[in-house]
Automatic annotation (TrEMBL), chain A:
This is Transport permease protein. Residues 19-248 form the ABC transmembrane type-2 domain. Coiled coil: none annotated. Pfam families: ABC2_membrane. It is found in: Cell inner membrane; Membrane. The keyword Cell membrane applies.
UniProtKB/TrEMBL annotation, chain B:
Keywords: ATP-binding, Nucleotide-binding, Transport. It comes from the Bacteria. One of its GO terms (molecular function) is ATP binding. This is Multidrug ABC transporter ATP-binding protein. Residues 5-234 form the ABC transporter domain. The keyword Calcium does not apply.
């Protein structure tokens, strides 16, 4: 293993976040406050409780997931797309480093950043509502698994994208709708029956449901299903990345 | 000592169907400076990129210091430094940081003293805290060299290092190359500037259309291919070449006051003495005699033209 290389890639990526510290911290804090004002305050005032949980608290896991997913994807995709775009990737590709090590460096950094952002949102939310976490170990497990798998997914997008439009395409047109429709701000049981069935095809639902369970012990779908789904997604991303490694996809000619 | 790089039957066909390398065989000796000449699209960059691991070969083998570039890539790549053709650098990184980054990528633990000396040698020391985007093109080129040398490689590839570089930097660059070569580093460079290859290289390879047309010691090459021209200036103005001189295949210039004779320096019989006697016998008065040897450029143009 080329530990030095993993170290420099990881810290180089983390440094980027450090250089834009204000943006890294302020942006999730601000957006969390806004969601609480709009959903928790204005709308939540009219909704008493969902599944026995006060609405303000109910949306916290969804909010964290929303940021985690978008941040993981954008961090990881940008992290690999930018050196590809500027051409500096030649150096990484000519170094004595395996594809696996490259991934640990880039994906590890992207996942770490999301994890930090998740923690920041959780703390910010603590100022607005009382939070109880019934299964803290599972909460952290869900958090880490989500960060890693969606950072991997972002890495794949970053490799696949040949221009800035493609880089934004999937996060904007696929991920955002899936997150909003995946029960971030409501319980699936609040939907009409037809939409309840359709929602079951949304993979993000399982993530949010499982994560919410770790907080309040209530969930839309069985928690085991959630764990299986996220593991399946992780395995899927790993196999795509493995295939990319084998073929040198978009990196080697 | 065995060759440092050995390339056997190397072929590369891109997905587009373009055949960039057609069975290239090349042996690069330890410690030499090899210049690869060739027109655009000849396959020079593909060849370098393959050895460095940026391009996957279609067939053939390359070994670096006895290790296969695919099977033992960790061993081969750690010995190689690459200065790419494009000025590929991040915008916001600082000079010092980016050079440290490169060293780490190649698996070497930090060595601030070495990096300091490297930056001083490349006249980059006072720019070490500058952001890369604030540097001029020439300075960026220096940073790329510093990055390539950051892990103390045994082999350095310079892909058209002087393209778009001013005279001063070019001279500096050749000083650096010579110094590196003296310290035992093997250097492979590609260039369009033939006079550079002539000035700096030990051996010259000519590549066109994915094939190595020629690989020769520079002096041998110039001698071997070196055609000499002798220009005989006379006081008379001739309308035509005198009959007694026809056998020498002379060229008469427009004014009729100079004759050009082509000969091969390596031939046993150059014919110079006989020609001069014949000129004398024809009653012509000599004003001056000049000889010129064809440059690498002429040789190169001739080779590539022949191939086309």
């Amino acid at each position: 293993m080329n530990y030095q290389a993993i170290k420099v890639i990881y810290f180089n990526e983390m440094k980027r976040a450090w250089n834009t510290l204000l943006q890294t911290i302020a942006s999730p804090v601000l957006s969390t406050c806004l969601y609480f004002v709009v959903f928790g305050g204005a709308i939540g005032g009219r909704i008493e409780e969902v599944d026995g949980v006060p609405y303000g608290s109910f949306i916290v896991p969804g909010l964290i997931m929303l940021s985690l997913l978008t941040q993981s994807i954008s961090n990881a995709s940008f992290g690999i797309f930018f050196p590809k775009f500027t051409g500096t990737i030649y150096e990484v590709m000519s170094a004595p480093i395996s594809f696996f090590e490259i991934i640990i460096g880039y994906v590890g950094a992207a996942a770490s950043k999301s994890l930090i952002i998740g923690a920041i949102i959780l703390c910010t939310a603590g100022f607005f509502v009382d939070l109880e976490i019934q299964h803290p170990v599972w909460m952290v497990t869900f958090l880490i698994l989500t960060c890693i798998s969606f950072s991997l997914f972002g890495f794949i997008i970053g490799l696949w994208a040949t221009n800035f439009e493609k880089l934004q395409l999937i996060p904007l047109l696929v991920i955002t709708p899936l997150v909003f429709l995946g029960g971030s701000f409501y319980s699936v049981s609040m939907l009409p029956p037809v939409w309840q069935s359709i929602t079951l095809f949304n993979p993000v639902l399982y993530l949010i449901s499982g994560f919410r369970w770790s907080f309040f012990g209530v969930s839309d779908v069985p928690v085991v299903t959630s764990i299986i789904m996220i593991c399946v997604f992780l395995a899927l991303c790993l196999s795509v990345v493995w295939w990319m490694f084998k073929t040198g996809y978009r990196l080697k000619q | 000592m065995p060759a440092i790089i050995s390339i056997v039957d190397l072929c590369k066909t891109y997905d587009t169907g373009f055949q960039a390398l057609k069975s290239v065989n090349l042996t690069i000796e330890r410690g030499e400076i090899l210049a690869l000449l060739g027109p655009n699209g000849a396959g020079k960059t593909t060849l370098i990129s393959t050895i460095c691991g940026l391009v996957t070969p279609t067939s053939g083998t390359v070994t670096v210091d006895g290790n296969d570039i695919i099977k033992d890539y960790r061993l081969t790549r750690k010995d190689i430094g690459l200065v790419p053709q494009e000025l590929s650098l991040g915008a916001f990184d600082k000079v010092w940081d980016t050079v440290q980054f490169s060293r780490g990528l190649f698996g070497k633990s930090p060595n601030p003293a070495y990096i300091e000396q490297l930056l001083k040698d490349l006249s980059l020391w006072d720019k070490k805290d500058n952001e890369l985007m604030t540097l001029s093109g020439g300075m960026k080129r220096r940073v790329l060299i510093a990055k390539a040398l950051s892990h103390e490689p045994k082999i350095l590839f310079l892909d058209e290092p002087t393209a778009g570089v001013d005279v001063e930097l070019r001279k500096d660059m050749w000083k650096i190359v010579n110094k590196l070569s003296d310290s035992g580093v093997t250097i492979i460079l590609t260039t369009h500037y033939i006079e550079e290859a002539e000035e700096i290289a030990d051996r010259v390879g000519v590549i066109a259309k994915g094939e190595v047309l020629l690989l020769e010691d520079k002096h041998t090459l110039m001698n071997k291919m070196g055609e000499k021209k002798m220009r005989i200036e006379i006081r008379e103005n001739l309308n035509a070449i005198p009959d007694s001189l026809v056998e020498f295949d002379l060229l008469l210039d427009e004014e009729g006051s100079a004759l050009t004779y082509m000969y091969d320096t390596n031939a046993e019989y150059t014919g110079i003495t006989t020609l001069l006697k014949a000129v004398n016998t024809a009653g012509l008065t000599l004003r001056d005699i000049k000889t010129t040897q064809s440059s690498l450029e002429d040789i190169f143009v001739k080779l590539v033209e022949d191939d086309v």
